[in-house]
## 1
Amino acid sequence: MLLWQALCLILVVEGAALALFPAHLKEAAVFLLEADTQMLRIIGLVALLLGAGLLMLL
């Protein structure tokens, strides 16, 4: 049940971002397309570790 709640919360946050800031998300998509693969891996790893660390604190 908790997993479904977490997935629903992701949809709420993503939907809100698309509804409120569509132009910024387009810019972010362009950035991702133009970014180096290694840089994207590092950003993803940092986000993963940050998220996991914050979850452990809760």
Note: Residues 22-58 form one domain.
## 2
Amino acid sequence: MPDNKRQHFVPQFYLRNFADDPERRSIRLFVLRRGLMMPQASIKGQCHRNFYYGADGRLEAAMGELEGEAAKIFRAIIDNHQAPRPMIQDHRTLVDFVASLLGRTEAAESELNQTVDAFGRQILARARPDLAEDLDKVTIGWSNAVIVALSHALAMSPVLWDLHFRVLTAAKEMTFITSDNPVVLFNQTFDPLHETMTRGLASAGLQIYFPVSPRHAILFYDPNWYRPGRGRDGFVPVYPIDIKQLNALQIGNAREHLYWSGAGMDGEVARLHALHAASRPQRAAEVRAERMDRPDGHRGELLTLIKPRPNLVTKLDVLNNRTVPQGPVSSVRAPEWTNIVRLFVYEVEQGRRDAASIFEFVSAHPLANVALSRFIPDRR
């Protein structure tokens, strides 16, 4: 077997943080579809597919480099109680790693192909009505969907630079669990109000939850809408009432598997699954068409993608709302910065910019000072 055949979409080094044995080779596993609990599953055998990123190994190697840098950051958090300072290299590496997990999992691959399939059917049904009867016989998608999803997530990761974050530390009586899709997007301000446009990377009120170990988790949040609880050096204690909600988010977000450490959490995982299994999305993404007047005076259609999301109401005590939405609110968190990043990504895709040249690009943009002033106090 080639050395690079077995390629992991959730890194082994990360799952070892939740290992259940001194050698850090096994982990506790819950298989959602079967309701099956396994007290000792091999970490090496989790979250992988043969040649998932391609047979040439280049993308796998690039992911390995990012994982190596992220592993150092997590060890500093877990062992030394040190969190990255905003906008230094470790902070940007952390954001890149979290963004990569939004694009590289089997769940991300499946979601992208569901989106392509839903839009493709709508467009073909209108452009080629003669094919309408045959559309149910085919599936539309990308064979390399994970590469597309991962590339887009990494390219757009600077959109997340304005988010603040805290490291959550669990109380002794309960710990964090993780899954095969561990990065969770949610929005306790706008999710209850809107069906769409609340969980994009640029959405106002966005929150991103990512467990790092049984005792540590990272919570990114929009500082315009939330105020974190009191803590020290970027660490904030969190108690069972919130840990249960955060663990429920993992159940709602997971594709097939949950992971955790310690037999003492077995009963809690089983209880949470029984309580929240029905909240997991039960349908695929769909496209809704709405007739509308176009600027040229003709009638057209607006196609809107509706992504199913877990039926969970999350209201964390550790993160208080600064205010309640009153009247129309922009759905984009930082419009100037988002537009700069999108323009940069376009330049990279056109081959006119190198992906590492974002600071050079931003410094030359006329709106840079306005865009960056809200989250980089001093850019010198």
Note: The chain is about 35% helix and 20% strand.
## 3
Amino acid sequence: MSGLIVKPRSRIFHGHEWVFSSEVKTFFGDPQPGDTITLKDYRDRPLGTAIFQPHSQVVARRFSRRKQSIDHEFLQRRISQAIELRENYPTLESSPCRLVWSDSDGLPGVIVDQYGEHILLQVSTLAMYQKLELIVEVLTKLLSPTSITLCNHAHELVSEGIPQETRTLYGEDQKTFLTQVGSTHFEVDVYQPESLLPLQQLDLYNSLHSHAALQQYIKGKNVLILYAGNGALATSCAKAGATKVTAVDRCEHTQTLLKRNAELNSASIDSIQFDVLAFLKRCDSHYDAVIIDLSRSTVPTKKLKDLLKNLKELHTRSLELLTKDGTLTTLSAHPQVHQRELLELIVDSAVSAKKTLRLLTTHQQRADHPILPAMSETCSFKGYTLQLAPNR
């Protein structure tokens, strides 16, 4: 088996499962994109088996510490283990649910989401994409779904040599279907990625309905939601008892989805199609609660420095719109901004807005998104709810 030798002090020696291009000492054999390869340390000791992609910054992603092939038996074992893990969480809803979460479940680049009898599949690594038929076969056997749809929209697919596409892999072609979270219904359009429900938000949705600690921040309040997307969060706030919900998003398609989902739940939402930062600069209204939802829609930027600058302005202007004792909730899936960094950014924004904040709640991803402590990449969702402290 072909492979590569990893340099000393590389991240894989500290628990990480990836080998970056700068950490490769040399290659042996003739590994090709999508191959399964052997990893060795600088003393020629085996480190396990990985998938190979020389055109990516991450050239190897380890999926086993022993010699292992990606065959039907392996895929069935790993997917079965992932499903069993979710079944062992009694408080975790069975649908919607993320059944497979990429590297955290030992299947790099594979994401399986279950919406009732429908399965949505994402495969973002070439090695796993080459095993697509086997993956579908295993999912069909284990779950007996009505449909399995491939939803490959991610930008990184280009470097992997994988087409960006949406297509039915099993069952009838399902362009849309309904799903339910708690007592709230949502329409999912599988051909529009903006409509897919960010599963990381489900704990917050459930909290809005069942946890008094969070519901009290919404019930009877005038709520502003920024980057509202398909309206899932706006609808949840309306059903949690908010007196008024204003939802802002610049995308025309998501505005259509937002209105549709509001109608499904008989929820009253004031939707505004506008650039969020431009809206904040012009806004002269005040709100009891502001929710910045960056779990799907993001502040457009390429450089980390510009991203942090935009996020600071976003939070500063949001804080300036809060009424006395108002709350700010920030939900983020930015891979470049970690949990602690997000809190520091919020604190810095509060200083600029001349506000004092107290922390009420920390939001983290659900148990169906298991985290590998040595890999920050597996911790995608983070958030905080904070409240303005009385004037000092």
Note: The mean pLDDT is 89.
## 4
Amino acid sequence: MKRKWIAAVAVLVLATGVLTGCGNGSSADTDGKTQQAQEAGSGEEDTSGTEKETAGTEEEKEPVEITNVSYDPTRELYAAYNKLFADYWKKTENQEVTITQSHGGSGGQALQVANGLEADVVTLALEGDVDAVKDAGLIEEGYTSEFDKDSSPYTSTIVFLVRSGNPKKIYDWDDLIRDDVGIITPNPKTSGGARWNYLAAWYYFEKEGLSEDEILKNMETLYKNVVVLDSGARGATTSFVENGQGDVLLAWENEAFLSLKEYPGEYEIVVPSVSILCQPTVAIVDEVVDDRGTRDVATGYLEYLYSDEAQRLEAEWYYRPSNEDILKEFVYDTEETTIKEIPEDGKWIINNVDLTDINHFGGWTEALNKHFVDGGLFDSIYEEE
């Protein structure tokens, strides 16, 4: 696959005034398979040591290391962001910072942190996965109030990725229950993105005026059409794009745009009539940072995600900035619902979509207990072969 996969455990090092890019690596995902990856880019020499940003700093501090445990599709974003943050932290705090990355299905990542994988911060696909870490006693109550926008510095939504020309004429959620359509989506038991997919589909059928029993019947049909139920969103993209499986990929918006960018002319994005506002959530892992003495840098790391520089970087990697003014810079003014190429002016966000959010489902605790726990509604409609 042409994509420069970013290693699930990638280390970014800022030497004294110099940011050094990492080489190739591999990592085990949540199901134990090894995924090859490459780091992209390298930094440039920093000659700004006398700039006003370093004013008042008397001497260089000891180097510090932190670990960010994140979900599948953020590999490219955090490879770029970690360089940006390391440069910022060096200039403002005169301290080298090394950031180790871990990526995988969001639910599996949360479970690993809860079971002992040391993370200074988590940047997961949804609040419910961060709750799993909190429930393990590692994150304090009230973490969603610690940072702006309910600790969600960027958002996304769910779209369809189809092959060029849309040969199966897939335009909305009801097309996914036709018997001639093969679907690729991750597993809601392990993937945060898959849970967003599921809830967006549920919302569509609900808006059609169906009863819960009728919705469940349609959801069962939809999941019977699933060709591959991967453990994470990146694995699902690989199944669709690299392995040529299925007719449609239910995808994070950023994953779909990356495929469009890297395979011009081969895929199209279809924006359905309704979807869901996906709110990835970030948090400091209090137990770890207090033990390691990394609270200051971990806090700075998450706070800087809201800076103008980081917000624009997030948009460049096809995440929706939480800063409304910066988001408007990337809004694509169109009535079209099929996107065949990346707009040359960089404006890619389509806002003419009916987006529900997790509050419609009573919040993540209620949604998880109703739909995704063992014995929940998802288990009632899908049985692994």
Note: The longest helix spans residues 75-93.
